[in-house]
Q: What sequence folds into this?
């Protein structure tokens, strides 16, 4: 079992003929994902890699292929437009990989997507993977293994680091979701925690946050109130200076709020086991799962 | 991107917000000329990207042009929180009856722009928010409709009773909305918004932060960047498409990905070291980026050892290895390098490094402990 993506995922790639889009489409196909369509305006009628039909519009792609999920690799200037188009085409899960989408655009995109009943993951995220079934985005498939631990993270390569520790120690994953490093994102920790809590294929949850904002604190309150499964957490940015954007647009301590310390305290108060180092994920999970 | 006060003032004025006339000066003579033109008492204000300018002696009242020139010569070149003052703003000293705060921020929780308005202005609003949050009125605005007339009036009524002042303030709220949305700001703030003895409502100080993601489509705003106000190594890094933040430690860090970069710095600290920087070489890293990263880090004399921590996903570890080898051929790095890499094309990367007489580690903890020990030995 899994959350958000599985064998039933029928994926359309927005920006499939671009440099990043084509590279990652090949990887997703290789992993076994059902990539049913691509969209690049002006390239409708072509075949990607001789097997995936390319359409001019999302409406065409959905009508012809019954796609239910989209992944976006278009440049920042076109990313908001691509999300609107996917939502209008009736896509239920939209994953936006693009980094650098203006936040002002997102203030309008997010309510638009919600009003159409769709879920957006990202922007500025690595996407998600349900090991052994389906990968939507850029998380390397070879470091993951099927299993029963759910993982949600604001980061990309830090997620890989932790997943790698899990896999090497025989702990497989139900689904790994990268929710993105931007200040305004479509799916937050709580959305993922709720889904993992409800997923019969998930026994425990790993949550990886970072400095900036209050999403982790809110998530901690949610864990305390509504999550029965064990949760292990990590916060990146203990050594980050105040007021500086640490790579991710959302990773910034404003004034004195959003520090790593504050978030780790919130985790502990909610009964979340807090890793001091990424490698601690293995010991803490084993402790919490009693194995 | 932070704007200087004088730049923020221009954006506010362009939206029609009433602000006292003023001018920006890079020399004492220029400051004198502006003060002469304005006549009367003026304020000379240091233009640096930090708060607490007044406490640091960077804001001075001058009774006449000669005094303005004196203050300017003292403030220009002054260090405030490590930043050198390159310019001063000279504005007329307004007579003030009341001081309020009006701010508009991009709020992560409501995912909307949020007004923060308080009759307790002229002071650090963070302190007001922490000690007396009830003194701040908040309003989240639907970006599709913008600030509606009844909303701007309701906000203004929290500041003033006099209807003429309420209407003037409501107008300023609406104009600030325009500043915020048309410039892609993450913060637009007037502190203080004052009333004068003759009843006028005026914006005395302005602060605007632009969302960095806007700059690609807004070259006019990108041109406002003042590189002289930044750490030179950070400017060089941005030009090389690297995300770099200088810190005070002695362990240089080169990492792919922001989250892993932060976690690497944290682990350096955990093992008793002190990171010299945050550096994210990004996803699709070509060898050239690695060479630039090493050049920038080695310019910092504090750096005693350098750690590469690369988890290859999109990043090819062989590209990084090639970059390290190229850099060491081009210039003398001068300090030991510890390399941890794993993931995409790891075997090729190790071969490339071995051929150049270097080795790579596979484990992050082992690599961090090693680099911390090396930095300690060299210190």
A:
């Amino acid at each position: 079992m899994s959350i958000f993506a599985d064998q039933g995922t029928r994926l359309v790639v927005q920006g499939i003929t671009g440099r990043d889009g084509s590279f990652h489409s090949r990887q997703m196909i290789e992993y076994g994902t059902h990539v049913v369509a691509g969209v690049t305006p002006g390239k409708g009628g072509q075949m990607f890699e001789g097997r995936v039909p390319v359409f001019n519009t999302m409406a065409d792609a959905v009508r012809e292929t019954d796609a239910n999920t989209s992944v976006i690799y278009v440049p920042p200037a076109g990313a908001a437009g691509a999300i609107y188009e996917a939502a209008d085409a009736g896509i239920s899960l939209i994953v936006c990989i693009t980094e650098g989408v203006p936040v002002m655009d997102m203030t309008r995109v997010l309510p638009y997507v919600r009003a159409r009943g769709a879920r957006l993951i990202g922007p500025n995220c690595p996407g998600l993977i349900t090991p052994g079934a389906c990968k939507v985005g850029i998380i390397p498939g070879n470091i993951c293994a099927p299993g029963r631990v759910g993982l949600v993270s604001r980061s990309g390569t830090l997620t890989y680091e932790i997943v790698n520790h899990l896999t090497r120690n025989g702990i497989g994953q139900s689904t790994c979701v990268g929710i993105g490093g931007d200040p305004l994102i479509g799916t937050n920790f709580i959305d993922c925690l709720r889904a993992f809590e409800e997923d019969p294929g998930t026994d425990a949850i790993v949550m990886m946050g970072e400095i900036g904002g209050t999403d982790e604190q809110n998530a901690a309150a949610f864990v305390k109130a509504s999550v029965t499964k064990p949760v292990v957490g990590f916060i990146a940015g203990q050594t980050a200076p105040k007021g500086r954007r640490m790579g991710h647009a959302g990773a910034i301590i404003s004034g004195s709020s959003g520090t790593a310390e504050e978030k780790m305290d919130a985790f502990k108060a909610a009964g979340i086991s807090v890793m001091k180092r990424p490698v601690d994920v293995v010991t803490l999970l084993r402790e919490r799962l009693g194995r | 991107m932070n704007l200087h006060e004088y730049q923020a003032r221009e954006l506010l004025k362009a939206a029609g917000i009433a602000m006292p006339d003023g001018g920006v000066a890079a020399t004492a003579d220029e400051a004198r000329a502006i003060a002469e033109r304005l006549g009367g008492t003026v304020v000379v204000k240091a233009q640096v990207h930090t708060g607490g300018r007044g406490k640091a002696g960077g804001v001075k009242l001058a009774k006449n042009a000669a005094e303005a020139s004196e203050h300017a010569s003292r403030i220009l070149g002054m260090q405030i929180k490590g930043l050198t003052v390159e310019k001063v703003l000279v504005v007329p000293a307004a007579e003030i009856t009341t001081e309020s705060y009006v701010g508009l921020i991009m709020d992560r929780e409501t995912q909307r722009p949020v007004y923060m308005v308080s009759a307790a202005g002229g002071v650090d609003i963070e302190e007001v928010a922490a000690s007396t949050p009830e003194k701040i009125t908040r309003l989240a605005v639907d970006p599709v409709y913008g600030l509606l007339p009844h909303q701007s009036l309701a906000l203004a009524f929290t500041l003033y009773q006099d209807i003429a002042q309420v209407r003037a303030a409501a107008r300023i709220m609406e104009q600030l909305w325009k500043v915020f949305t048309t410039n892609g700001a993450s913060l637009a703030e007037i502190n203080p918004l004052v009333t004068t003895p003759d009843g006028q409502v005026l914006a005395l100080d302005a602060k605007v932060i632009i969302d960095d993601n806007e700059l690609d489509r807004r070259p006019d705003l990108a041109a406002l960047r003042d590189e002289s106000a930044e750490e030179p190594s950070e400017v060089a890094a941005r030009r090389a498409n690297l995300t770099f933040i200088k810190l005070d430690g002695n362990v240089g860090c080169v990492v792919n990905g922001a989250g892993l970069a932060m976690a690497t710095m944290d682990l350096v600290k955990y093992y008793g070291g002190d990171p010299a920087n945050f550096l994210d070489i990004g996803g699709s890293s070509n060898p050239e980026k690695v060479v630039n990263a090493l050049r920038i880090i080695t310019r910092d004399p504090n750096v005693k050892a350098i750690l590469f921590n690369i988890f290859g996903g999109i990043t090819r570890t062989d590209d990084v290895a090639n970059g390290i080898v190229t850099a060491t051929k081009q210039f003398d790095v001068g300090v030991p390098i510890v390399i941890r890499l794993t993931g995409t094309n790891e075997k090729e990367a190790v071969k490339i490094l071995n051929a150049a007489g270097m080795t790579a580690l596979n484990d992050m903890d082992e690599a961090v402990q090693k680099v911390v020990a090396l930095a300690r030995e060299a210190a």
Observations:
- Residues 163-182 of chain B form the longest helix (20 residues).
- The radius of gyration of chain B is 25 Å.
- Chain B has a mean pLDDT of 93.
